[in-house]
Structures are given as structure tokens and as C-alpha cells.
Amino acid sequence: MAKEMTCPICEAEIPLEGDEESGDLVMCSYCKMTLKMVKMKDKWVLTDEFEE
Ligand SMILES: [Zn+2]
């Protein structure tokens, strides 16, 4: 099932394949920022904060 995320930097919508897992990295094609996907409860969020 395809998902769409909103870039926290530029607020562009980022289409996803739908098989991403928590912790995967995606790149916003608009601002070129690398973002980490994190699943919080049943909602996916993108963060530019990397803890590792
Ligand atoms: Zn962006």
C-alpha cells in the first residue's frame, strides 16, 4: 500500500513504495535532504534528526 510522507523541511509530498521499514532513509527530491522514516504508533513520520 503506497504511502505519502510530507517532508518536514520543505513540506513537499514524498511518494513511497509502501514497503519501507522503520529506520529506512529516504531522500526528499525537492530539498535533497536525507530523512529517516520512523513509525510512531500507526503513523509514519520523517525526521532529519539522526541519533546514531
Ligand atoms: Zn524536502
In short:
This protein has 52 residues and is mostly beta strands. The chain is built from no helices and five strands. It is 0% helix and 40% strand.
List the helices and strands and how they pair.
Elements: E1 4-6, E2 13-15, E3 25-27, E4 34-40, E5 43-47
Antiparallel strand pairs: 1-2, 3-4, 4-5
The chain binds zinc ion.
Note down, in words, how this protein is organized.
This protein is mainly β. 0% of the residues lie in helices and 40% in strands. It has one domain: Rubrerythrin, domain 2 (Single Sheet). It is globular and about 25 Å long. The termini are far apart. Zinc ion binds at residues 7, 9-10, 12, 28, 30-31, 33.
CATH architecture: Single Sheet
Structural class: mainly beta
- Number of beta strands: 5
The level-1 CATH class = Mainly Beta
Instruction: Note the run of SSEs as H and E.
Output: EEEEE
Oligomer: single chain
Overall average residue pLDDT = 87
The radius of gyration computed from the alpha-carbon positions, rounded to a whole number of angstroms, is: 10 Å
- Give helix % range: under 10%
Helix run count: 0
Question: Ligands bound here?
Answer: zinc ion
Unreliable residue runs:
none
What is the strand arrangement across the widest sheet?
A: 3-4-5
Query: What is the percentage of strand-forming residues?
Result: 35-45%
Q: Please state the overall shape, judged from the principal axes of the Cα atoms.
A: globular
For the largest beta-sheet, the strand count, sense and barrel status come to:
3 strands, antiparallel
Number of domains: 1
